[in-house]
């Protein structure tokens, strides 16, 4: 009898060991929060909660309820990999920037909304978090470097921020900028990069159901190395579009020149939608390495989220949607 043994990424999410462990930890964290013991998470072998002097913004809001509309069919990537293997060019061009990123001060943190809006706004991050509904979503992350993860993000739909901004009808894009502070971010001393890190979406993309502003992961506030306290998550695009540590949202009628586009427009375009059929000029995008299992798996167009976003890109001749 032929027995088919599924690959690791074909496991249903509920069968993944990391998912069970994750649910158990969420249950324990909720119980500890209710008992006032949340500062003792280090006893579970988890990263220690921040002290009162350096508390993460919105710390008491986690964990948030899961939105089950967004499903994955691969196991969650181990939290320690997600928080130690990532890009954050403000702190260096290598993957192991998690220690250097701890210099980032996330409180106080001001967020500015300006440009073509009814009234410019400025929030402290705590005030912003009090005005939007937090939820958890499981999303796949696909890096342009052809590796991928599955991450449980906490945050809120970006359309909620657009609603707060009340953009004018003439606004067509929202431009996002990250913090700029050379004293804590050594990468920003490298003058050949066009700091601050700038990204952009069309208003239609920003108000799509998938577009997400993340404030945490794995049921806790966002670690600094992953883009605390506020980062963009656009799972149908390559990961470099998901700008970290955001401080400004500017609404405009002009398409911005984004960070990587300014550096190498032939390799990193404005749209950056995932497509296995369109190679990077220096490597194939047909497959990706799952960071958790180490195995190579087929890449899907729009990273598997075509049902949510494909309609955004109909009738756009001449646009390099997948660069």
TL;DR of this structure?
The chain is an alpha+beta fold and 323 residues long. The protein contains seven helices and twelve strands. It has a single domain (8-313), classed as Oxidoreductase, molybdopterin-binding domain (Sulfite Oxidase, Chain A, domain 2), CATH 3.90.420.10.
CATH topology (level 3) name: Sulfite Oxidase, Chain A, domain 2
Helix fraction, binned, reads 10-25%
What is the CA-atom radius of gyration, in angstroms?
19 Å
Overall structural domain count: 1
Using DSSP, what is the number of strands? Answer: 12
Largest sheet: 7 strands, mixed
Give me the strand/helix succession.
HHEEHEEHEEHEEEEHEEH
Question: Judging from the principal axes of the Cα atoms, what is the shape?
Answer: globular
User: What CATH architecture would you give?
Assistant: Alpha-Beta Complex
Number of helices: 7
Strand fraction equals: 15-25%
- Classify the secondary structure makeup into a structural class: alpha+beta
How much is the average pLDDT? 88
Query: Under the CATH scheme, which class?
Result: Alpha Beta
Termini gap: 46 Å
Low-pLDDT ranges: 1-19, 32-53
- By CATH's scheme, which homologous superfamily applies? Oxidoreductase, molybdopterin-binding domain
């Amino acid at each position: 009898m032929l027995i088919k043994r599924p690959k690791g990424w074909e496991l249903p999410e509920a069968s993944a060991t990391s998912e069970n462990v994750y649910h158990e930890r969420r249950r324990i964290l909720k119980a500890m929060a209710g008992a006032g013991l949340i500062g003792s998470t280090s006893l579970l072998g988890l990263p220690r909660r921040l002290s009162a002097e350096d508390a993460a913004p919105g710390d008491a809001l986690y964990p948030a309820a899961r939105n089950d509309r967004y499903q994955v069919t691969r196991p969650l990537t181990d939290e320690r990999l997600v928080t130690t293997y990532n890009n954050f060019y403000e702190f260096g061009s290598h993957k192991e920037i998690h220690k250097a990123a701890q210099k980032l001060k996330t409180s106080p943190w001001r967020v500015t909304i300006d440009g073509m809006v009814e009234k410019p706004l400025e929030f402290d991050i705590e005030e912003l978090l009090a005005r939007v509904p937090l939820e958890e979503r499981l999303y796949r992350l696909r890096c342009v470097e052809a590796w991928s993860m599955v991450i449980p993000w906490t945050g809120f739909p970006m359309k909620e921020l657009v609603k707060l901004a009340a953009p004018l009808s003439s606004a067509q894009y929202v431009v996002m900028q990250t913090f700029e502070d050379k004293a804590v971010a050594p990468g920003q001393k490298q003058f050949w990069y066009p700091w601050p890190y700038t990204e952009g979406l069309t208003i239609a993309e920003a108000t799509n159901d998938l577009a997400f502003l993340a404030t945490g992961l794995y049921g806790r506030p966002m670690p600094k190395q992953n883009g605390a306290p506020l980062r963009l998550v656009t799972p149908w695009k390559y990961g470099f579009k998901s700008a970290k540590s955001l401080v400004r949202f500017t609404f405009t009628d002009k398409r911005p020149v984004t960070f990587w586009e300014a550096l190498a427009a032939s390799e990193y375009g404005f749209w950056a939608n995932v497509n296995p059929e369109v190679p990077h000029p220096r490597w194939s995008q047909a497959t990706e390495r799952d960071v958790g299992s180490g195995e190579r798996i087929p890449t899907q167009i729009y990273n598997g989220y075509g049902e949510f976003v494909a309609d955004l890109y109909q009738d756009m001749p001449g646009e390099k949607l997948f660069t």
